[in-house]
């Protein structure tokens, strides 16, 4: 596979991840702290959900190997 094609595929994957992250990036349970001009957002629940989804996907793909 050409290096150019790899970069195009990686770019599309990152673009899709960014679009998906916008929709699930602010789930209930995520920690947001605001004080003055500073905003700190820690997406703990979002991270757990993404981790569970990836674990299930890797488990399913591992079964077909």
Structure description:
The protein has one domain. It is α+β, with helices and mostly antiparallel strands and 65 residues long. Helix content is 65%, strand content 15%. The model has no long low-confidence stretch (mean pLDDT 87). A two-stranded antiparallel sheet has the order 1-2. 0% of the residues are buried. It has two helices and two strands, in the order αββα. It is flat.
- Major pleated sheet: 2 strands, antiparallel
What is the number of beta strands? 2
DSSP helical segment count? 2
Order of helices and strands: HEEH
Mean pLDDT: 87
Strand proportion: 15-25%
Helix-residue proportion? 55-70%
How far is the N terminus from the C terminus? 22 Å
Structural class: alpha+beta
Provide the low-confidence segments as ranges.
none
Radius of gyration: 16 Å
As for the number of domains, it is 1
- Shape, principal axes of CA atoms: flat
Please give the order of strands in the largest beta sheet: 1-2
Pfam families: DUF2905
Keywords: Membrane, Transmembrane, Transmembrane helix
Transmembrane segments: 6-24, 36-61
Protein name: DUF2905 domain-containing protein
Features of the shown structure:
65 residues, two-stranded antiparallel sheet, single chain, flat, alpha+beta, 65% helix, transmembrane, membrane
How is this fold's topology laid out?
Layout: H1 3-24, E1 31-35, E2 38-42, H2 44-63
Antiparallel strand pairs: 1-2
Pfam families: DUF2905
Keywords: Membrane, Transmembrane, Transmembrane helix
Organism: Virgibacillus dokdonensis
Explain briefly what this protein structure is.
Keywords: Membrane, Transmembrane, Transmembrane helix. The chain is an alpha+beta fold.
